[in-house]
Amino acid sequence: QVPLVESGGGLVQAGGSLRLSCAASGRSFGNYAMGWFRQAPGKERDFVATISWGGGVTRYADSVKGRFTISRDNAKDTVYLQMNNLKPEDTAVYYCNQLPGRGVATTPGDNWGQGTQVTVSS
Question: C or N terminus of the chain, fewer CB within 10 Å?
Fold first, then answer.
């Protein structure tokens, strides 16, 4: 498995923005779709966004559509999540995930990063 390392989380006021990054090491990064998931305290880990192996196809959870943007740079082995107009309900630990195939999917693969905390104050 390719090690995944998230960064970019933090504390932000409602309406603010953050950009998460997920850096991968390994030659296979560009062969797989990638996804972001999040887990709030006491809740299950939920799908947030996914991007195909080449970056041409994306899909979002309804709760983040129009506010979050997923992108990737295969030359840098990195996937990003730009989060705008953040709301208190976006507070969670955000995890990067390597999906099982090349196409977008809402079901995660087995390869997870360690997570990065995002806290949105009201």
Answer: C
**Strand, helix or coil at 108?**
coil
DSSP annotation of 85 reads S
CA angle (49 as vertex; 106, 102 as ends), nearest 5: 60
C-beta separation of 46 from 36 below 8 A = no
pLDDT digits (tens, 9 = 90+) for 27-63: 678 889 999 999 999 999 999 999 999 999 999 999 9
Query: To which H or E segment does residue 121 belong?
Result: strand 116-121
Contact 48, 60 (CB under 8 A): yes
Give tens-digit pLDDT for 64-101. 999 999 999 999 999 999 999 999 999 999 999 999 89
Neighbours of 8 (CB within 10 A): 16
So what's the pLDDT on residue 113? 93
Is a pLDDT exceeding 90 seen at residue 16?
yes
CB 110 within 8 A of CB 1: yes
Instruction: Fill in the DSSP letter of residue 101.
Output: S
Tell me which amino acid residue 113 is. Answer: G
